[in-house]
Amino acid sequence: MIYKATHPRKVRGESVHQPLSEKIKQNQTNLKTISTSEMHEKLKKQSCLIDPKSLFIGNLDTKNLIQSEYFLPNTDCFVEGPDVKELSERIKLWIGTGYPVHLIGPTGCGKTSLVMHIAKEIGRPVVWINGDDALTTKDLTGGYAQIKQESMRDHYIHNVIKSADIIKPEWIDNPLAIACKYGCTFVYNEFSRAKPTANNVLLSVFEEGILELPSKFGQERYLKVHPEFRAILTSNSIEYAGIHAPQDALLDRMVGIYMDYYSLETEIDIVRKHTNIPYEEAKNIVFVIRKIREQVNEVQKPGTRAAIMVGKAMKQLNGNAEKYYNQLFIDVIATKTGSNVDLFQKEKLVNNVISQLT
Ligand SMILES: Nc1ncnc2c1ncn2[C@@H]1O[C@H](COP(=O)(O)OP(=O)(O)OP(=O)(O)O)[C@@H](O)[C@H]1O
């Protein structure tokens, strides 16, 4: 007996998930409802860095992203000396023309702080990722990372149970996809630590304004990059030569800006901003760190960070630093020494430099 349906079968359970193209279209339309001025309003209330990990929660629509608690980094401590300002203006010029900027400089010279300060001035949410050797394209763009299982029970005929399990791949956006979709400032720290193949996806983002998404299910593979998307990449001038030489095609799409350690006065201001110690103390610390920097090899140069560390330790010692003064400098540079012999050399260097203090 052939069963003839007398009325349309009603399938229980959720409808099959929206194709990616629908989601993208929906997200793109959402984009239009969030203007940059609205963004500025919301930005004023919040200031913290978008932590990509907390964003790996499936598709965010723009409203969620903007109203959520992710926003710009806190740059209250930022010091903008003349040399910082000059660099910042150059970077903003290129960012304003829509080119990605590649900031290259030695460890601890201030790349990240400068990038975060500029990102805050750009006024869009910041999405940030650290490059490393294990990073893959999927870590940048996202992929089908979750499988949602739904079962559908059909009791259309009371004594017949028809069941089926629907396996629904769940797309998870990763930092680059989020930045391209919602027009965030994409900060890719130490990008040259990642393998060039992982960064290939950036080529069409920077040139054609298209993000190619890996999609196994034949859905929409291409995302049009939001007009407010901006990218700033940093790399360490020492490692830059050593880790993975980025592909020429990618370097060709970026503007490269080399930076070095800031001027004496700016470094003194930075140390004081972070430690509140008196000018003379900060000046002596920076003097010693800069003298050490002049006399050690590239990879052992102490950055501004080392001067801040000594300043914070002196603050901790609350004026009783006399006894430990030399040792503080030796401790902050010891991490970059290779052996006891090397350390002994450094101790002599530190004692000699400190003896020059007036
Ligand atoms: N303009 C600035 N104003 C205030 N603090 C700064 C400034 N530039 C750098 N610093 C401070 O100096 C230290 C090193 O800066 P930062 O981390 O930005 O350097 P970096 O070049 O990114 O270092 P790395 O190569 O290790 O990532 C940090 O403690 C940072 O807060």
From TrEMBL:
Alphabetic keyword roster: ATP-binding, Cytoplasm, Gas vesicle, Hydrolase, Nucleotide-binding
One example GO MF annotation: ATP binding
InterPro entries according to UniProt: AAA+_ATPase (IPR003593), ATPase_dyneun-rel_AAA (IPR011704), Gas-vesicle_GvpN (IPR013462), P-loop_NTPase (IPR027417)
Entry GO terms, CC: cytoplasm; gas vesicle; preribosome, large subunit precursor
Top-rank taxon, per record: Archaea
Start-end of Basic and acidic residues biased regions: 11-20
A Pfam family annotated for this UniProt entry: AAA_5
Cell compartment(s), UniProt: Cytoplasm; Gas vesicle
Protein name: Gas vesicle protein GvpN
